[in-house]
Amino acid sequence: MGPPIASSPRTITPKELTSLEFLPFGYVIESPLSSGVNSMPEEFPRSAPEFARANQGTALKASPVSPWVDKYSESSNHATKQPTVSMFTCFPRGLVQDKERGSPVFPVQILERHPYTTQTFVPMGLSPGDESTKYLVIVAPSKQPTNGFPRQGPPDLADVRAFIACGRQAVTYGAGVWHAPMVVLGEKRVDFVVVQTTNGVPEDDCQEVDVQGGTLAINLKNVSRIASRNAKL
User: What is the pTM of this model?
Assistant: First the structure.
């Protein structure tokens, strides 16, 4: 784990997760078809990449929908790398009630990054229209390198962003992008399939920093139907 970093008091209001808003940090994967389309459409939806017929005309395929980046050749370690598919079972997080604002918040206490690989989270078991359970995507760019972070800099806490994602969306964090561990909001757990490259060297696979002071928080007042699993300040 890298040296702890301090944050000035800051509360962030999350935005809806969209490909355009998230592009500086990675990629959003979602179907352009509405959940009510259950037979082959006469006209293909516009998308990048474009759809093509597959499986004897019974499916539409778009590829690639997200890059899989592997930069392990840049590491000074020479451990064997491999593609890794994992499952993370993530349970709803308890929120903190901010007395001053009268709203629930999520305090950001740790950020992590994977310096040599993209990391894709694909939620399973959530209906596209399920409003009772969502997940929170928290990201930050890197600052310039320092003695404590000689190759890639520490997270820029003045530019932390937050997004609300739903069950129809998967997300890819770019290689080296700082992000919070997965935060599920609402009533149900979410199982994620996670795709990345690893080599088994802890500092190559995942770097973490503690965010000190408890003053960096995500305001969840306007997130609909989030269960009131709140602790009191």
Answer: 0.90
